[in-house]
Every structure is written in C-alpha cells, then in structure tokens.
C-alpha cells in the first residue's frame, strides 16, 4: 500500500510546530490537525497548508509570524525541496526534484497495486446501486446510477475497504401486480382476445414484445387459468425476464453484482413485522386514518409505513417503500453486519434521505452508518438536439441501445465527467467522435501513444524493461509528469473519502495532457544518449501503468492501439 505524500507533508509540518514549541518559539498548545491542499498555481509549490491561520488564538500572534517560526524549526526531510511562507500565513511545500525523479522506480515497483491505499483498514462496506424497478429495461438515468455505484465501489476497494455490490430488486407491492396486468392484457391481445389494457399499465413496445413471446411459448395456458393467478404468474415471469435482461445489459457495461437482493424476502422472513413491533414498543409508531405511521423527532412530519386497508385492499401491497427500508437497513447493518451501507439514489428520492436515517436511529443504529448519494438526471443529446425520454409513456432510450450505439467505454467515462449532484448532458455524437473533443478518446489515445513508443523502442533494439538512471529525469516536462503520476493515491483517497468517483475522469484527462506535453517536449528514444533513453523508457512505462490504473478504476479499457 502507498503512503500518501499529503500525510507525509502533514507530519512534516506538525513536527515543525512541535519543535518550535520545544524551542519556545511558540507557546504550548495541543498539536492541531494539519490540513494539506494542492495550490492552484504551480508557482506556489506542490502542497500548502493554512494551519497557521487557524492557530492565532492558541499562539497569540499573527498567522504569518506563526508560519515563519514553524518554517524556521522544520526538520530535514528527503522529499522536501523547499518551504516558504506565502500570503497571510500559508506554508507552501515544494517536493525535491531528485526525490521526485526517484519515484519513477517506486511507481513501477507498485505494479497492479500502484495507487492503492489502506484508508479503509478492511471495513466492510456495501454499495447498493441501480435497483431500478424490475418492470422495464435499464434506462439512461439508471445507467448513470450504475456507473456511479460501480466506480465508487472500485475506488473504495482500492482504498482498502471490503466492498460488496448489491442490486435491490423491488419485487413486492403493487408494481408487480400492475406489471402482471399489463402483460396479461398484451398476452391476451397477442392471442386474438379483445382484452382492455389497464389505465395505469406499463406502456411500451417491450411489454408487447414480451407478451407476444410468452404467447408463442405458452399458448393459451393463462387464458384458461384463474385470472388473478394468471396475472400474478405472468407478472413473476415478466419480472424474471426483465431481471435477466438487466443483468445481461449491465454486464455488457462491465457492471456486475455480488448480490441480487429481493425485497419480498423482507416480508416472507417476518423481519418487517418484527421490526414494526420493535418501533411500536419504542414509541415510534402511531396509527390514524387506518394507516400505520412512523413518527420521529428527527422528521418534520410523520411518514406512512403501512397504508390503510380502505385505500389498499391487498395486505401485501400496503407497506410503503419506507416500510421496506425499515427492514432493509436492519438487514444490511445488523443481520449481514456491514460497517457502512451506501445507497445510490436518483434526485426524485431526495426527500426519502432523512426518513431512512431517522428509521435507522429509531432502530438503535448509528445513522452515520447510512450514506445516501443523490445523483442528478441525464439529458441525452445528439449534438444540440435533445433526445426525448418518458418511461411512463413507453418512450425511452435503454442502456442496451446506448451500448449498441456508442459502446461501454464512452458511457462509463462521460457519465462521470460531472459531479454527481450536477445534471449531465450525454452527447451521443460526441461519444463516438475520434478527436480531442471526446474526453475518453483523448485519454485512451494517450495510453495507445505510450504503447506505440514502447513498441517502437523494442523495434529499435531497446529493451523497454531495462533499468535506467532516473536521476536524469530533470526536464520540466518529465518532472511535471512524475508529479502528476504521484497524485494517483491521493485521487483515490479523495474519491473514496468524498464519495466522488468523478475525480478519476478529471485526473485521467490531466494525466493524459501531461503525457502529451512530455511527448512534445522530450524525445524518448535517442541513440546518441543511451542512459537518458533508458530513463525515459522507465518514465513511459510508469505513465502507462498509472494511466491504465486510472482507466481500470473507471472500468474503461486501456487500448494499446487506436
């Protein structure tokens, strides 16, 4: 596992504060947490800390004076090339260029674990994502959910967490019946019957196609059965087929799950009833208007757990989504023992976040063990033109259609080019464009160029795996490239800590740009300078490894030719 340079810098600054106190240049006070950041301008060094701005009350002096005394007492550190005080009291740290050059070898030694860190210390985390209702194909909105969840899970694994990916199958409640009624109507129509379509049924060609296939396979079997039983059976058959297709489509996107958890088991096992009684005994349940309500001081208003029989006749359909969440959060954190449960939800579920956390607290669980990531929707475009989608009307673009048109790499990369809380425009035309305008093409082209350089070197008689004198890597573009590669472990840490998988696409583009600049400025293979050639080939290999690692975490291929 890689030790983060930011943590080394923080320890270095903390040692300076402690030594200044021992020398009585600063008064005694508890050593603070050292926040370290990367300056926006290269001229301000590689790292900066504003800690001295936070110590004015403890030290009883101006921040700049504190910073000066800290810098005067800093110990020697091989990785530090320079330290200076800037602005009102920032301490800027510049890495030593010789040390930076030596890290080329360190990166190569990291192998397939380069960039991995031990932030999680083996804690068990479940990431539950996609979880679209099993009544229709995976659509564009759920595709963004899939990418966010899958890449976040990969980042957490690289950060040292034990991660399980889960798909929650909503196969309890009224949507199963409605889907069965829709299928029954289309099934009967396919067999020539004049069967009316339900007013609130599921529209769309996929229902017609599925019903026609069932009619071919089963004949009139369910027309000759008890109608309610036929509707239930067709609904279950339909959901099974939708799930099979969803699993296949997600696999084509390179998204797989450890567990497909079925909502109905929360009721079949009796867990929901037991927990409802627990909440009732602890004073979190009220009953009025024939319904069962969850009440909590952490909520502005009560929330329905079980609807009134006057509203919903079928007992199996009365529990609300929040009712299922009561049992589900307990199942995750208690019965299966995850240290943390992360949910990835669309923006339309924003109002449910405080309810689920309040439910966890009411059950005696730490609500901070429940994390809910809310992502915004996707606008699908072709150039400047919107591609209209409406799932209820049966008009939508599916994940399978996107994969067939643009492939999994652009989907995975482009859906992470914005923060999760920002709406994203996905341009189908841009996704297949082979130019620098297409971010995924730009990054993959950098990796292919690296592989091309290594092939050329081998054709010229060089062994790309030879060791070289990395101390020769002093050119400004060489140093900048190594510094950018050294950011990968911190990018993994930041993406894991902040639940921000989009940081990887930003980083991959920055690394690709830095490599292109190096390629422009530095000739790699030069017969007249064998030692420098070997050193630069080591640098190129390290760049290939780092870029491949970033793309691998994104679930995007790293092509050797384009």
Task: List its salient traits.
Gyrase A, domain 2, alpha/beta, 48% helix, single chain, Rossmann fold, three-stranded antiparallel β-sheet, 562 residues, five-stranded parallel β-sheet, flat
Give start-end ranges of low-pLDDT stretches. none
CATH architecture of the domain at 124-171 and 259-375: 3-Layer(aba) Sandwich
Instruction: Kindly state the number of beta strands.
Output: 14
- How large is the radius of gyration? 29 Å
Strand content: 5-15%
What does this molecule look like?
The chain is α/β, with parallel strands linked by helices and 562 residues long. Among the domains are: 5-95, Gyrase A, domain 2 (2-Layer Sandwich), CATH 3.30.1360; 124-171 and 259-375, Rossmann fold; 174-252, no CATH class. Helices cover 48% and strands 12% of the residues. The chain has 20 helices and 14 strands. It has helices spanning 5-22, 56-59, 63-72, 97-110, 140-158, 174-190, 205-218, 227-252, 264-268, 271-281, 321-335, 353-362, 399-406, 408-414, 428-431, 439-459, 476-485, 488-497, 503-521, 530-554; strands at residues 47-49, 80-86, 90-95, 124-128, 162-169, 259-262, 285-288, 291-294, 303-306, 340-346, 370-375, 378-382, 385-386, 424-427. The strands form 4 sheets. It has a 5-stranded parallel beta sheet with strand order 6-5-4-10-11, with helices on both faces. It has a 3-stranded antiparallel beta sheet with strand order 1-3-2. The protein has a 3-stranded antiparallel beta sheet with strand order 7-8-9. A hairpin with a 2-residue loop joins β7 and β8 (291-294). α16 packs across α19 (503-521) and α19 packs antiparallel against α20 (530-554). The two termini are 33 Å apart. The mean pLDDT is 95.
């Amino acid at each position: 596992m890689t030790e983060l340079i930011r943590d080394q810098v923080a320890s270095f600054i903390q040692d300076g504060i402690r030594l200044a106190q021992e020398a009585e240049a600063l008064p005694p006070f508890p050593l603070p947490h050292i926040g370290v950041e990367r300056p926006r301008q290269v001229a301000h060094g590689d790292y900066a800390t504003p800690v001295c701005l936070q110590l004015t009350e403890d030290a009883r002096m101006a921040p700049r004076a504190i910073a000066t005394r800290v810098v005067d007492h800093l110990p020697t550190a091989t990785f530090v090339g320079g330290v200076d005080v800037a602005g009102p009291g920032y301490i800027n740290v510049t890495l030593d260029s010789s040390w930076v050059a030596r890290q080329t070898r360190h990166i190569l030694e990291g192998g397939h674990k380069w960039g991995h860190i031990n932030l999680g210390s083996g804690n068990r985390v479940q990431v539950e994502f996609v979880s679209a209702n099993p009544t229709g194909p995976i659509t564009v909105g759920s595709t963004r959910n899939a990418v966010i969840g899958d890449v976040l899970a990969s980042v957490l694994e690289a950060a040292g967490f034990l991660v399980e990916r889960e798909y929650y199958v909503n196969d309890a409640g009224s949507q199963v019946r409605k889907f069965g009624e829709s299928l029954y109507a289309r099934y009967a129509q396919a067999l020539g019957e004049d069967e009316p379509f339900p007013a609130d049924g599921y529209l769309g060609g996929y229902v017609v196609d599925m019903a026609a296939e069932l009619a071919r396979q089963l004949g009139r079997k369910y027309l000759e059965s008890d109608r309610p039983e036929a509707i239930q059976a067709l609904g279950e058959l339909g959901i099974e087929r939708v799930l099979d297709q969803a699993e296949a489509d997600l696999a084509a996107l390179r998204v797989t799950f450890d567990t497909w958890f079925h909502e109905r088991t929360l009721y079949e096992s009796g867990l929901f009833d037991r927990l409802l009684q627990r909440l009732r005994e602890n004073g979190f349940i009220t009953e009025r208007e024939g319904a069962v309500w969850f009440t909590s001081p952490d909520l502005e208003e009560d929330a329905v757990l079980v609807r009134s029989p006057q509203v919903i006749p079928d007992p199996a359909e009365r529990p609300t989504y929040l009712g299922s969440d009561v049992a589900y959060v307990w199942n995750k954190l208690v019965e299966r023992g995850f240290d943390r449960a992360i949910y990835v939800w669309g923006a339309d579920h924003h109002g449910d976040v405080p309810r689920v956390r309040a439910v966890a607290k009411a059950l005696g669980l730490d609500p901070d063990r429940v994390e809910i990531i809310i992502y915004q929707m996707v606008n699908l475009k072709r150039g400047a033109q919107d591609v209209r989608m409406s799932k209820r009307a049966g008009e939508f673009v599916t994940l399978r259609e996107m994969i067939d048109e643009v492939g999994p790499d652009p989907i995975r990369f482009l859906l992470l080019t914005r923060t999760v809380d920002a709406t994203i425009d996905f341009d189908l035309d841009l996704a297949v464009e082979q130019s620098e305008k297409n971010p995924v093409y730009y990054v993959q082209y950098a990796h292919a160029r690296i592989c091309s350089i290594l092939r050329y070197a081998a054709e010229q008689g060089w062994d790309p795996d030879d060791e070289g004198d990395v101390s020769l890597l002093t050119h400004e573009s060489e140093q900048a490239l190594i510094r950018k590669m050294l950011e990968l472990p911190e990018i993994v840490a930041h993406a894991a800590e902040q639940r921000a998988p989009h940081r990887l696409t930003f980083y991959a583009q920055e690394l690709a740009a830095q490599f292109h600049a190096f390629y422009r400025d530095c000739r790699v293979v030069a017969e007249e300078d064998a030692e420098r050639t070997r050193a630069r080939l080591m640098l190129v290999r390290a760049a290939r490894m780092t870029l491949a690692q970033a793309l691998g975490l994104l679930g995007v291929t790293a092509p050797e030719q384009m």
